[in-house]
Each structure stands twice: as C-alpha cells, then as structure tokens.
Amino acid sequence: MKKLFKNVNIITHEGDILEHQDVLIEDERIAEVGCDLIDEDAEIIECTGKYMTPGFVALHAHSPMNIFKGIAEDAHIDDWFNREIWPYESKMSEEDIYWGTKLACAEMLNNGITAFADHYFKSDVIAKACKECGIKADIAYTIFGFGGNCDAELVLAEKFVQDFQGDQMISPRLGPHSPYICSKDVLKTIITKAKELNCGIHIHVSETERQLQDSLQLNEGQTPYDVLAECGGFEVPCIVGHGLWVQESDLKYYNEKVCTAVSPKTYMKLGMGEGNLWKYWKQMNVVSGNDGSASSNSIDVLEQIRMFALLGKWNDKAVEMTLKEMWQVLMKGHRYLNFNSGKIEPGYSADFNLFDLSSVSLVPLYRPLAAILYSAQPSVHITDTMVHGQFVKKDGKLLLNTKEIVEKSVQCAKEIYERGKGESQLHF
Ligand SMILES: [Zn+2]
Fold it and tell me: What angle, rounded to 10 degrees, do the helices at 94-110 and 402-419 form?
C-alpha cells in the first residue's frame, strides 16, 4: 500500500520549514521525501497549503486515570492524591482501566499524539486498549513493592515485558513507582531485572518539595535522584516523571538515556510550586509529558508545552524559551521511545500530523511555529493523523468508535461514584 502526499510543507523535528515537498509512504514507513515525486501505484493525497509535522508524544501519562477527570478539584497535591484519587483508584475495576485508557487514546489521537509512555498497573489491559485504538504506547509495568518486597509483582512484570518485546506498537519497560514508595532494595531488584531484560524504567522523581525534604531526612542527605542513582536507575534508559524539585547536584545524573517528562498544567493546578525546573531545564533533557487527566484534565501536550514556555517567559524572560526550543521539546520525546519515529525522513515510521493553518484564528502566517505553539488547537487544526502508516484521523474526523467509548466511560464513571471511596490508605 503506497500513499503519496503531494505538495506539503514539512515542519522538521528541529523546527525548520521545507516547503512544497512530496512524501511517499509505503506500508508503515516513509519511503521517500522530495520534490515532484511520481509513483503510479500510489494513492495521491493532495496537501497544498497544509503542514506536516512528526506526531506529538506524551512521555509521562497515566492513561486509565482519564476515567477520573474532574473527580477531584480545588485540592492541594497531598489531599488530591491521598484523600481523593487513591480511595477511588484502589477500587478500580478492569473495565474502568480498559475504558479509561480508550478514552485517553481517543483524546490523544484527536490531539495529534501518536505515541505515549504510560505508567500504571494492569499493563496488559492498557496494551489491549492501545492496540485496538492504533496508538503506539511505551508501557511501564508499575511496581509499588509494598512491604519492601516486589517478587510476585516482578514475575508478572517480567512476563509482560517478554510478551511485548519486539512489538512494533507496544514497547514494554518496568515502572518502579518512585524512590519514596519503593525501598532501595526494591529499586535495586527492579533495575537489575531491567538490565537483564534489556529494557528501560519509568519512574516518578522529585515531584514535590515535601518528597525532596523527606528523602533528605530519611536517606542521610540523599535527594530522590541520589537514591535512584545509588540503585542504578541512570544506568538504564530512564524516563523521569516531573523532576520539578531537581537540585543542582542532581544534574550530573543526566545522560543521553535519561529524559524528564514535564506537565506544567498539573504543577500549577495542584499548587506544586515552580521548583527548579525552569532554572535547569536545559540540562534535563526535557520532553513533553502529561500526568493524565485526573490532574491535568486533558491530554494535550501542545497545551502543556505552551504553559511551560509561558511560565518560563513571564518573569521578564520573554526572549528565552524560543519557538524553536519549545518545538524541539515537543519533538524530542521520540528519541527516548523505541518506535523509530519523530522525523519526516526516509526509513522512519509514518507517524505524523497534517495541520490546516488557514483558519481565522491562525492567519496571517508569518511564523507557522508561532501559529501552532501559541494559537492552534490540535483537535481542531490537525486534520489528519497517521500512525504506523495507518490513518487514525482523516479529514478532521477520528476513525474510532467514539460513541461507544463515551457511553462506556460515562457508565464506568457512574459506577465509580456509586461504589464510592475505599478504605485503602496510601501516602505520597
Ligand atoms: Zn505521574
């Protein structure tokens, strides 16, 4: 199956514009990019005036938590989790996880997200939902290691990793929850297993100031980053969720295998402070994250990076966090995923968006990057999205059974409310 996208303007992963290009897709790959391409076997897709970009990526998500969107509002981070979310979460059913994930996948695909990294339990249910929706997912089998032991959880995690290694749509890794829920022994055991399985980890690090202070007190002056480093966490590919309260001394742990997925909307909404993220972001391999809709109320990485840029600029730093830098933050996540995606170049997976930037809210178009980063709504202005050579959105319409997803999600939400909060206690 070949498709030839004619006369499209490409916005590269670096943020450069290549005008009037033709892009030939063969099966799941980009076969050729150039001017005046001809292929008589290919279906021609006329793209005059449109802009093609690599797909967006969200590197820290909890997709099933979409089912809790709006359930806990106007709460500080501690109450939000301990008193609101966890008591509901501890009573979640597989149905809730399945439909919550599908709801998230539909929203992500509608917002141009072609791949994401998830961190949650019931990874097999999440993988099934993602496969059915046609989105690429890097899924971390999440391990809490309560009571200082994770042996039983690790057996299941190992099976999950082995089942999906080599899959083109699902990429498995291990997800120790955090250096404050997992003991050092548990972290070491999980990271040793990740090395043995040749996979990465995905973990929360230094989200709040209290977590930082607790760690300093409990671990003889070690930050959460220090604890993770002692356990070997930066010797494997590692997605750091948040890193908001990173310390200057933590920056030495960043290498080419480690990135930080950020979600400024969550930080603002839950009153988590500015931390040191805006001070050190250039040294932290920052990529677009999300944290899920329970805290962010949307899965829209364009919105997250827009807020990241605006928060960076607001205090007399308007010349910093430039268009190109912010675009690269949006695009850079691809390099920490195993999907051979993120560039509109021959050999790369056909994972991309087509933007229509001609509407009243976006013209005139002096700078297409400004139109996308500061004016566009991805659900409206992305007309077409392709993942792995398949259209998931075409002519502005999502190719999923959204009616069923909405109905089932609403039903799950009703049952969640009726079941009420559980007695289970967990303090982050
Ligand atoms: Zn998180």
Answer: 140
How far is 176 from 140, CA to CA, in rounded Å? 8
Cβ within 8 Å of residue 104, ≥6 positions away: 61, 63, 64, 66, 292, 293, 299
- pLDDT tens per residue, range 140-189: 999 999 888 899 999 999 999 999 999 999 999 999 999 999 999 999 99
Q: Distance between CA 358 and CA 336 in Å, rounded?
A: 33
Q: Report residues near ion ligand 1: CB below 5 Å.
A: 241, 291
For residue range 372-410, what is the model confidence (pLDDT) as tens digits? 999 999 999 999 999 999 999 999 999 999 999 999 999
Q: Which residues contact 228 (CB under 8 A, 6 or more apart)?
A: 179, 187, 203, 205, 234, 238, 253
Q: Which residues lie across from 35 on neighbouring strands?
A: none
Q: Where are the beta strands (DSSP E) in 298-377?
A: 352-355
Query: What is the distance in A from the centroid of ligand 1 to the CA of 177?
Result: 9
> Could you tell me which of 112, 13, 35, 102 has the C-alpha nearest to residue 65?
102
How many Cα neighbours within 13 Å face the side chain of 8? 27
Q: Which residues, in sequence order, are bridge partners of residue 172?
A: 139
Domains and CATH numbers, the chain: 2-54+348-397 (2.30.40.10), 56-336 (3.20.20.140)
The answer to whether the predicted template modeling score (pTM) of the entire model surpasses 0.85 is yes
- Ligand 1 centre from 292 Cα, in Å? 7
Q: How many Å lie between the centroid of ligand 1 and the Cα of residue 376? A: 26
In three-state secondary structure terms, 51 is: strand
233: Cβ–Cβ under 8 A, 6 or more apart, which residues? 187, 191, 201, 203
Alpha carbons 303 and 111: distance in angstroms, whole number: 10
Q: Which two tokens stand for residue 256?
A: 């080419």
Ligand 1 center–CA 36 separation, angstroms: 46
90-140, pLDDT tens digit by residue?
A: 889 999 999 999 999 999 999 999 999 999 999 999 999 999 999 999 999
| Residue among 100, 119, 425 at smallest CA distance from 293 | 100
Buried b (16+ CB within 10 A) or exposed e, 82-101: eebbbbbbebbeeebbbbbb
Ligand 1 center–CA 125 separation, angstroms: 19
